[in-house]
Specification:
There is one protein chain. By secondary structure, the chain is α+β, with helices and mostly antiparallel strands. It has helices at about 25-30, 60-75, 100-110, 110-115, 130-140, 145-150, 170-175, 190-200, 235-255, 265-280, 295-305, 310-315, 315-330, 330-345, 345-360, and strands spanning about 5-15, 40, 45-50, 80-85, 120-125, 155-160, 160, 215, 220-230, 285, 295. It has a single domain (about 5-360), classed as Creatine Kinase, Chain A, domain 2. The N and C termini lie far apart (about 45 Å). Belongs to the glutamate--cysteine ligase type 2 family. YbdK subfamily. It is an enzyme of class 6 (ligase). Keywords: ATP-binding, Ligase, Nucleotide-binding. InterPro entries: GCL_type2/YbdK_subfam, GCS2, Gln_synth/guanido_kin_cat_dom, YbdK.
């Protein structure tokens, strides 16, 4: 069974619900020799990234996700902040770029895009045996990634207003030059040529700025799927991770059986992603196989069916079916945020509800925060 790992980017908010730049202070208080989930800085000081250890068992992934959220929260609290798993700040904000030579170079080069983009995503890493296998996987999962985005949507509000999107993070993130889907590669050589071509343009600084929906990791032998919002409910993050591993296993089986990937143009995938970001699971989506418009729930069920054998082999099928039913019923993080706002029409309630939901599986929280 393949190992997998999860990275979550969390927003730090103060008692008014405003994003607050305390990550450097919080991270300075990290315990030495962290066991379990690890924490690191991100481009903005209002964010902290958590990383699980690699596991084959999704119960252990969930435990690390919860531990990472708790640790980030515990380190933020002495500085008047809480950690919230929301993909964008529901309230107005002014980001503060983390002091780092690379980030400073990005700020100088890319102006407002670097200065103003504060988005929190979820990245899932799945182990691969070779780069050849990895490229075969990328070619065969690309048409399913919009469905993963639809299942993760968690950024309907930004700057104090409803954006009309279920994932406005998708819109903000795609200001970056290299974000989005790719065409088919067919070989490691073609993938490497693609990377060199983009870097050689001089438009991006290096391979680290290849912000693709899915890519081969530059640091470890994994496929890294980066299309999703950070999920509000930690259980949804595990559903996402299980589906990504299921897609990887299914893609490898197809590759070994000589089944060619679907030749879907990247332009069509961009449309599918845009629609997923607009309505999440509550509207329609292009079907991942036929490309025709269908209810989003049909596209989701097609994904579960497509990966069903792999999910069953990994022991994830029941968890995924239960989680998908929950997400379809609630609308995921976007639906939960909008429900919180609908109760009293207060954006601070959205943030307070998000803080509570972020840590629902952990210890009891002070419900007076962001009252």
């Amino acid at each position: 069974m393949r190992t997998l790992g999860v990275e979550e980017e969390l927003l730090l908010v103060d008692s008014r619900g405003l994003a607050t730049p305390v990550a450097p202070l919080a991270l300075a208080d990290r315990p030495d020799g962290e066991a379990g989930a690890r924490l690191s800085a991100e481009i903005q000081q209002e964010m902290i990234e958590t990383q699980t250890r690699p596991h084959t068992d999704n119960d252990l992934i969930l435990a690390d996700i919860v531990a990472g959220r708790q640790l980030a929260d515990a380190l933020a609290r002495p500085h008047g902040a809480r950690a919230a798993a929301v993909a964008m700040s529901p309230m107005r904000l002014r980001p503060h770029v983390t002091e780092d030579p690379r980030y400073a170079k990005m700020l100088e080069r890319y102006g407002l895009t670097a200065r103003g983009t504060l988005v929190c995503g979820c990245h899932v890493h799945v182990a691969i045996e070779s780069r050849e296998e990895g490229v075969a996987i990328l070619d065969r999962i690309r048409n399913w990634l919009p469905v993963l985005l639809a299942l993760s949507v968690n950024s309907p509000f930004f700057g104090g207003a409803d954006t009309g999107h279920a994932s406005y993070r998708f819109v903000a993130w795609h200001q970056w030059q290299s974000a989005g889907p790719t065409d088919l590669f067919g070989s490691v050589e073609a993938y490497d040529r693609f990377e060199r071509l983009l870097v050689d343009t001089g438009v991006i600084l290096d391979k680290g700025m290849l912000y693709l929906d899915a890519r081969l990791s530059h640091k470890q032998p994994t496929v890294e799927v980066r299309v999703a919002d950070v999920c509000l409910d930690a259980r949804d993050t595990v559903v996402l991770a299980a589906l990504v591993r299921g897609l990887v296993d299914t893609a490898v089986a197809e590759w070994r059986a000589g089944i060619a990937p679907l030749p879907v143009p990247s332009a069509a995938l961009r449309l599918a992603e845009w629609q997923a970001a607009l309505t999440g699971t509550s509207g329609s989506l292009p079907h991942p196989v036929t490309g025709r418009e269908v209810p989003a729930a049909d596209a989701v069920h097609a994904l579960v069916s497509h990966t069903g054998a792999a999910l069953a082999a990994n022991g994830d099928l029941a968890r995924v079916r239960e989680g998908v039913s929950r997400i379809l019923a609630t609308g995921g993080g976007a639906g939960m945020q909008r429900a919180a706002f609908a109760r009293r029409g207060r954006m601070r309630d959205v943030v307070a509800s998000a803080v509570a939901a972020t840590h629902e599986l952990g210890e009891e929280d002070d419900d007076r925060f962001v009252a």
